[in-house]
Structure formats: structure tokens, C-alpha cells
Amino acid sequence: MQYRCTECDHVTAKWVGRCPECGTWGTVEQAPVLTAAGGRSHRAVAPASAAVSISAVAADNTRHFPTGVSELDRVLGGGIVPGSVTLLAGEPGVGKSTLLLEVVHRWAETGRRALYISGEESAGQIRMRAERTGCTHSDVFLAAESDLDTVFAHLEAVKPTLVVVDSVQTLSTTDTDGVTGGVTQVRAITTALTSYAKAASNPAVAMVLVGHVTKDGAIAGPRSLEHLVDVVLHFEGDRNTALRMVRGVKNRFGASDEVGCFMLHDNGIECVADPSGLFMDQRPEPVPGTAVTVTMDGKRPLIGEIQALVGTATAPSPRRAVSGLDQSRAAMTAAVLENRAGLPLGQRDIYLSTVGGMRLTDPSSDLAVALAIASSFADLCLPASTVVIGEVGLAGDLRRVTGIERRLAEAARLGFTTALIPPGAKTTPPGLRTLEVATVGEALKALLRIAHQPTSKPPEVKPAARPGLKLVDGAPGRSPAGDNGQP
After folding, report:
1. Is 182 left (phi over 0), alpha (psi -120 to 50) or beta?
2. Contact by Cβ (8 Å): 104, 116
3. Which of 167, 99, 163, 108 is nearest to 140 (CA)?
4. Dist. CA 295–CA 290, nearest whole Å
5. Which of 76, 115, 122, 295 has its CA 20 to 30 A from that of 324?
6. 91 in a labelled binding site
7. d(CA 276, CA 52)
8. Cβ within 8 Å of residue 324, ≥6 positions away
């Protein structure tokens, strides 16, 4: 007998609590020793059903059925496929139960039965939340169960076409050893539910399983759990904002890089078809230190605004505070501005933030970060109709990013008239003027050409206190007189 890790398949001769290969606790289980294929004889067994041509398989039974929640249907590729198993994972309190209660309500409104099984709440608690969110349809059935055999009895009695299990870590079965929520129990329960959904006698049953996550954001349970199901979705959100996102990680029936946006309120959850307005600060006039960019979240272009604030040169150890951006890339961009463009930022505090709780990890926002810092440093404003897209290299060069045409089309759709981008764009949408720049220095020169002083600038602020950018040895930089403009 041997022991195998369920995470990395490492094999040991004896049981250990922690896998010596991947370092994961509680994943080493007993496994039978496999013999060589040549040492055994194979016996042909008559199949239960004959193999058929792929062209003879009816496709009507496996098409997408819309759930009625447009943003979720977008991520799923058009809806839920009968016989499929979907795993929805997210942090506690992010809104998984609220979203799925809305899904079963919309499902029941089309004349189909839905069964909501909860191992964490009673039926009365679910009814209380359903009344608050307006999801009290008579074709939605509730069951508070944690035993797998009892769950199957409910499935046979109700005959639903959609089943929600909230959550798979709370169910248990007496046919398998292990504690509730353990690796062995979760794998056995998921396997049993998947086999039930895909059985020939239940061709129209689709299942949605709710999964817990660990403290580092990974789905709790064995890694093989994601291989057993057909669709894996991550429900993300910040507790400080109402914005929620459903991100596709795996999808056997559609694209696996789609993103759906929602707003979580006290009375339920609603879809956000055009979330770009959530990530921009609405103001009548532009202010220094802001730049707008277009990021790609999966296949979805989103408009985001970056705000920067450059402090005075007083602290010996300057502070770099970043919110919503990759801190390492922001520090790299500031270093490129100082060494390649001549901006003396080494002794200054720099604060960077995004608007609306947006997270920008796409390198295409590097140029927007650079121009936001330069705009705050020189007290200049980018026009509100200008969008900035581009990746900054360590040599000060600008690199093209993927999906530039889709980004420009989104910017033109939202009314932007000028785009500052790296060279190489093949097509430009009508009504959008593109300014191609090859280096950070050229981008700062373009900033000097298109920027204007804000009309709300206080009259007591003297121009000498915040001198503008000027060309120093062919590159934009500060006046050589000194950092405060004094000789």
C-alpha cells in the first residue's frame, strides 16, 4: 500500500500529515498500488450503449438556457446547460447566496422548478432574505439539509430542473470516511452530485454548487474539485464598495475569461451592463493628477481613472502609497519617470489610487500612471476627453498592449475624442484622434501640448511655487534652478 497527495500526486511509502513535495497539510491519503498494464489480462465488456457518430448526437438537449440574470449569462456563455455542474466560489459575505436566490427566482418565473438546498441556514432564514430581496416565487423550493442521501430524496420528490447547493462543504455522507468539509468528503459529495446531474435518467437537471475559499483566496478542498465540475466561477468584491464581479475561471461551454459586474444593495443584487461610469470620478472640470485609461478584464473593456498626488520634497524617506494598482509596477513607473524623463521624484511622496474600488493589474495602465504623476508634479491637467493606453518599459519605451482596437472602440463609444497610445494601431474608430508616442519623454511632450491650467486654480498660488515642465536636454523635466523654483 502507498500514500498519495491529492494536490500534487506525490507518492510516499508511509502516511505523513504534511506533503513533503508541495507542503500542503491533510492531503496525503491511502491509495492502492497500481500494477503494470502488461501484467494483467483485459476482458472485453459489452457497453451499456453503443458509440454513435458525433453528427448524430442531438444538440437541442445541451443548449444554453438563460437564467434571467444577464451578467451571469454573459459569463456562462449564454446561460446554464442542462446536466452541467457549476461551482461558484467566493469569500463569506460577498453575496453568493443573494445572487443564487435571484437566479432561482428568475428561473422559476419562466415556469421551471428550482430547488435551493442550504446546509448553513434554515428555511425560515432563507425565506426572510427572499422577502427582503423580492424573490418569493412559488416554484422555488427550499430544503435545509446536510445529509447527501436526504438531498437525493428531495431531488426525487421535487423533480427540479435547477438545483443550488449552498454549500458543498456543509454536506456529508456516511458512505465515506472523514470529517464534514474535509478533502475526502468534499470529493465524494461532488462526485455523487455530478454523477446525478449527468445520469441518463436526469438529462434536464443542472446544478450550481457554492464553494468556500481559503484565506489566500483559493477554493477550499482538493484541487481535483475544479476538474470534476464543468464551470468554475469566482465571485469577487470589496466589502467597502457595492461592486461585485463574477469571473469565469473554467467553462466547458463557452469562453473562460468573461467578467460580469453587479451592484449589491440592501434589497438585492442588480446587473451593471455598462460599469465604466462606476470607475470614473464625475467632476465638472479636470484637475491635476488624473488620467483615464482603458483596461481589459477578460474580454471586457473597462474605463478606469487613476489619481496621483505628488508631495513636497521634505521627507528623507519618501512614501509610496498605492491603492487599486500593482505597487511594484507603480514604483517601476516612478523610477522610469525619474531616470528616463528627468522628473526629480526620488525625495517626494507619491500617492496613487483608482476610483470606485477598481483594481488595475493590466500593464496597459502604466502610461496613465506616468502621466497622472507628471500631471500632479507639474500642476497640469489632461483634458477630460483624453484617454491614455500603453505599457512602459524600463528603457522608457512604450509597448503595445493586446486588444488596442477594442479599447479604442470603447473609448470612442463613451465620447472620448483623443487617445495617447504607442505606435502600431491598425484601425482607429471614427471620432477618435490618436496621438502615437514611442517613449515616455514623447508622452510628456504631448502632455505639454494638450494640457491646460485648471480654471479653479487659487489666485494666491504663484507660478514660481509650482513651475511647469520644460525641456531639459531634449527630455521633459524640472527647471535646473532647483526643486522649488528658487535660484
Report:
1. beta
2. yes
3. 108
4. 16
5. 76
6. yes
7. 48
8. 353, 354, 357, 358, 359, 360
Distance, in Å, from the CA atom of 190 to the CA atom of 182, rounded to the nearest integer, reads 12
pLDDT in tens, the chain (487 residues): 688 888 777 888 888 888 888 888 888 888 766 554 444 556 777 777 788 888 887 766 678 999 999 999 999 999 999 999 999 999 988 999 999 999 999 999 999 999 999 998 999 999 999 999 999 999 999 999 999 999 999 999 999 999 999 989 999 998 888 888 888 889 899 999 999 998 866 668 999 999 988 877 788 777 778 889 999 999 988 777 888 999 999 999 988 888 999 999 888 999 988 887 777 776 677 889 999 999 998 888 999 999 999 988 766 788 889 999 999 999 999 999 999 999 999 889 999 999 877 889 889 999 999 999 999 999 999 998 999 999 999 999 999 899 999 999 999 998 899 999 999 888 889 999 999 999 999 999 998 888 754 443 433 333 333 334 443 334 444 433 344 433 3
Annotated binding-site residue? 14: no
Looking at domain 63-273, which of 3.30.420.10, 3.30.300.330, 1.10.8.640, 3.40.50.300 is its CATH number? 3.40.50.300
Q: Residue 83, annotated ligand binder?
A: no
Is the CB of residue 439 less than 8 Å from the CB of residue 342? Answer: no
Q: Is 17 annotated as a binding residue?
A: no
Whole-number Å distance between alpha carbons of 420 and 449: 12
Beta strands across the sheet bearing 268-271: 140-144, 114-118, 162-166, 206-211, 85-90, 231-237, 243-251, 259-265, 268-271
The HSE-up count of residue 49 (CA atoms within 13 Å, CB side) is 4
470 in Cβ contact with 479 (< 8 Å): yes
Letter for the amino acid at 133? T
What is the per-residue burial (b if ≥16 Cβ within 10 Å, else e) of 310-337?
Answer: beebeeeebeeebebbbeebbebbbebb
Boundaries of every domain in the chain: 1-34, 63-273, 278-454+466-477
Residues 6+ apart with CB under 8 A from 283: none
Is 250 annotated as contributing to ligand binding?
Answer: no
DSSP secondary structure string for all residues of 12-59: ESS--SB-TTT--BT-EEEEPPPPPGGGS-------SS----GGGS-S
Residue spans of beta strands (DSSP E) within 145-230: 162-166, 206-211
CB 30 within 8 A of CB 3: yes
Binding site annotation covers 285?
A: no
Nearest to residue 467, comparing CAs of 478, 454, 452, 451? 478
Residue 457, annotated ligand binder?
A: no
